[in-house]
Amino acid sequence: MKKNKTLINILHRLFAGLLVIMSLFLLINIGFDIFTDNGKVGNFSGTHHSNGYPIPVTINTRVNKPIFNNEISLNVKKHVSKGGRKGWSSNPKYVDILPDDINDGTKNILSFHFDSDKEYFHTKASSFRSDGYIIAKSENKLISFLQIFKAYIGLFSLIIILFFLERIFFRLKKSLSFTNNLYKEVRWLGAVFIISESLSLLFSYVLSTYYGRIGVKTLIEGKRLSDGLELSINPRLEFDFAFFVVGLSLLVLASLLKSGNQLQQENDLTI
Amino acid sequence: MSITVNLDVMLAKRKMKSKELAELIGITTANLSILKSGKAKAVRFSTLEAICKALNCQPADILEYTED
Questions:
Q1: What are the residue boundaries of the HTH cro/C1-type domain, all occurrences included (chain B) (predicted)?
Q2: Which of A90, A95, A96, A222 is close enough to A73 for a disulfide, judged by CB 3.0 to 4.6 Å?
Q3: pLDDT by position in tens, chain A (length 271)
Q4: Pair A71, A94: CB distance under 8 Å
Q5: Contacts A271 to B, Cβ<8 Å
Q6: How many domains does chain B have?
């Protein structure tokens, strides 16, 4: 019982702290967006949407006609550029001897780079897929509105979720029992999870209907980007099934708490 | 249908005060008040037994069934 109380106390303080931090973060974000032109105040830089708002996309990359051969680079000197990009300078050597017909047709070498003479990984995968965002601006008012709403909905939802968690743990800290308010707050918490995920899915679907795909072409004469790398960026529906299930589970938990509350009331009125 | 608690009647017959009965049967006066006002959801057998013993009566003297 004492352990439970301590845990509840810690969680209440954690969520209260996170609520304050995230609320400040949201206010600062909005402040930077409204009152600055580029998101910078002196040396401090914050989030700014002057270049647009994120659109969820799936990025597919494929190395064309790959040869898999790892590189061993001894005496590597690592350096980090001002932009934060990591670089290596050394004299690399391929582990396997390159075939004689390497220059016939377009071939690309896909390799892990190791700075010791041991190969720790091998790959035969030439396709890569990842979920990401592309920053884009729209002149259309409806799309702009959707983008702004979508950009902040995640943060808003997180703050509302933290608010309810703080309230729930505050109540449990006061009394570890079934109460009417506890059931209502857990039900709201579940509803926020479901509404947030549903809106996210809806907005990403609407945004995806306004474009087919995003393409990249090289302007280097006589070259095609696909000779080396095939890159396709496609619309993505943004939906986290895990959060949706958490929301549904919280609704079920809320009805259990409601039932518990009724039992508790009956028990309290049994003389 | 409802169950009426006639504890007031029995207390008057035995010329006993609520506080006195509460002390005798070992419950709080607030809980006895809930029982008297009919707001209680249930009565434990042990409480009923204690009331009957204190008031020297039968359960039927305290509880009455009436049809709506």
A1: 13-62
A2: A90
A3: 677 889 999 999 999 999 999 999 999 888 888 887 776 777 776 667 777 888 999 999 988 888 888 888 776 677 777 767 776 666 778 888 887 777 676 678 888 888 777 888 888 898 999 999 998 888 888 888 888 888 888 899 999 999 999 999 999 999 888 888 999 999 999 999 999 999 999 999 998 888 888 888 777 776 777 677 888 899 999 999 999 999 999 999 999 999 998 888 888 888 8
A4: yes
A5: 27, 31-32, 34-35, 40, 42-44, 47
A6: 1
Range of the domain at B30: 2-66
CA–CA dist B21, B15 (Å, integer): 11
Rounded to an integer, what distance in angstroms lies between the CA atom of residue A187 and that of residue A179?
A: 13
Closest chain B residue to A271, measured at CA? B43
Distance between A260 CA and the closest CA of chain B, angstroms: 15
Tell me, yes or no, if B63 comes closer than 8 A to chain A by beta carbon.
no
Exposed, middle or buried, A79 (CB in 10 Å: 0-12/13-18/19+)? exposed
d(CA B34, nearest CA chain A) in Å: 8
Interface of A with B in 236-265 (CB under 8 A): 265
Q: Rounded to whole angstroms, how far apart are CA atoms A110 and B56?
A: 96
Cβ atoms within 10 Å of A15's Cβ, excluding its own: 20
Considering Cα of A64, then A69, then A73, then A78, what sign does the dihedral take? positive
Helical (H) or strand (E) element with A268:
helix A241-268
Q: How far is B48 from chain A (nearest CA, A)?
A: 9
Cβ of B40 under 8 Å from any chain A Cβ? yes
Chosen for mutation from B27, B34, B39, B41 (greatest number of chain A CBs closer than 10 Å) is: B41
Q: What is the CATH number of the domain that holds B27?
A: 1.10.260.40
- CA-nearest residue of chain A to B30? A271
DSSP A99-110: PGGGGSS--EEE
